[in-house]
Every structure is written in structure tokens, then in C-alpha cells.
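Intended use. Records like the one below are meant for learning the mapping from a protein sequence to its folded structure. Do not use them to infer anything beyond what is encoded.
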Amino acid sequence: MDTHTLPSATSTPTAPRFDTKIAVLLREDLAPWQRLNVTAFLVSGLGTAVPELIGEPYADADGTAYLPMFRQPVLVFEGGGELLTSAHARALSRSLPVAVFTAELFGTGNDRDNRAAVRAVPTAGLDLVGLALHGPRNAVDKVLKGARMHP
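Structure written out for the chain above:
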């Protein structure tokens, strides 16, 4: 058999099914560069708060070392501003680890100012453009109810 042949449409790869889910929810009106920037910032928070999400370091055949990454996929969703607000409230009510990115953070240039911008606004008034969360699959699914997969 040719080792470069792709699996047929009828074959089913055996991928592990994780009990937990890592998800990012983005506001649907963000520019492409904003979507990428927000996603990168948000998932960095999950990696520090939930260290068991990070796998082992990588190495290539020559022994060159690379940094470890998440050990499970990150699913990216989108929705409107109201959906982000309700998903945020649902995540907090379930005590799930959550990272937030607000519209004000596009105008700051450093971590200190980012934290000050979030701290200046009450929870209910946050102008959310993205959030990331991790938790049991069913809890994350309930938090993201109404969101659609990012295209």
C-alpha cells in the first residue's frame, strides 16, 4: 500500500475523545487580525491556569526541542455580543476557568494597562469580544449554547 495515500471517506480515524473541552468564543464582527490576536491571548490564560492541559515538549528526528502545546484541540466559535455576555455569565455560574478579552484591550499596549482596563469595568458592563474556557464537555457545550463554529 502507498504510504502517501489519504484515508478514504469511509475510514474512521481513531482519535481520542476527551472528557473536557477547550473553547474560544469570538464576537462575530471582529476583523481577521483581531480574531487571531484575541484567540492567542485568550488561550495563553488557560495554559497557565490549568497546567494539566499542556502536554509534553516536542522534538524532531534531529533532537531539536520545541515547546509543549495543549494536549487536546482548541475549538473556536463565534456569536454576537449578547451571546458572549450570556456565555460569560453561564461560565461564571459554573465556576469554569475563563479568560476574557474586552474591546478596550485593542487600545492598550501592555499587560499592566490590559489588567487596569478590565478592572475598571464591573462584570456586567464588560464589552466582551472574546472569551476562552475549559471544563467538562457538557458544561462547555451548555455555556456555548447558540454559538456556531468559526468558519
